[in-house]
Amino acid sequence: MSDLAEDASTAAPCFQVFSQLAKERSSFICYGVPGLHPESGFTIRQVVLDDSGSVVSIYDKIHLCDFGDGRETQWFRPGERLSYFDCRGFRIGVLICADMRHTELSRELALGRGCDILLQPAAFARDVTFASWQSFVECRALENQV
Length: 146
Fold this sequence. Notes:
Elements: H1 13-25, E1 29-37, E2 41-49, E3 55-60, E4 66-67, E5 70-71, E6 84-87, E7 90-94, H2 103-112, E8 117-119, H3 133-144
Parallel strand pairs: 7-8
Antiparallel strand pairs: 1-2, 2-3, 4-5, 6-7
C-alpha cells in the first residue's frame, strides 16, 4: 500500500500525469489514489485538478465501508472534512462510494454548501450489497434536488 499511496505533494506521480493532461485538454480531472496522511495513515482519496492542472480539491473518504467484500476499515482511516469546488459556474461536492449511504453528508453538501452537482466516484463490489447502490444514488439525488 505504501508504494501506491500519495500525499498532497505536486511531486506525486499521479499528480504529475494528471496535471499535464488537465492542461493539455483544458479540463478538470478527478482521480483516485490511496492517500497518505502523515498523522492518521492511509485514506481513500479523490483529487480534483482544474484546467490549469492545479489542485482545487482533495477529499479523503469520510464514511468507510465495513460490510460485504469491502472492509476498508482494515486498511484505511476516515477523512475529516467535506470537499467541494467551483467549476465553470457550478459548485460540485465530492463523495466517494459508500458516503452516499449517509444522508447527512449529501444534504450538507447540497443544502449547506450550495453544491449543484454531487460527484461520486465508486467501485462497487458485486456482493450481496450491490443491488442497493442504484437506489441510494437515486434517493440522494431526489432528496437534495441535485
